[in-house]
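Quick log. Single chain, no ligands specified.
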Amino acid sequence: MSTMHLNREIARAVLIILAGVVSGGVSFFLGIAMSGMGHGWTSAASVAIVGALTAPAAAVAWLVRNRWHGRVLAGAIVVVNVFMDAMTIAESLDAERGMVDRVWDAMPGVVILAAVLAVVWQILPVAALIFSRRAASAPDSHS
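-> predicted structure:
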């Protein structure tokens, strides 16, 4: 591998991780805004706040998707995301029914941006699992 190609790969990896960190940070602040400091749509805010951790982790999972630990990380992120989504849907349909409308009326742009970020960073670990090459095996435990 040439030095120029290696530098391009490193730059690409840094940009992908940076995108995850920035998106995670934006998700965090959108979650705080939607929660109204605890007086708003707190379950949706939980998903956005968890995105602050899972977005950068999804970026890493994508970058190492062809290694066994990349697939394990992607699978763990998918499990966390499914759990958080299910909890958000259950809470939004039950205890926080009026909050969804209230937050949507007050800040539809924030809700849309938070939803787009959540969808993108929840699709990425699924894509990492689908598009990984399975040739890499788990490390030998006898080493």
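The two ends are 28 Å apart (CA to CA).
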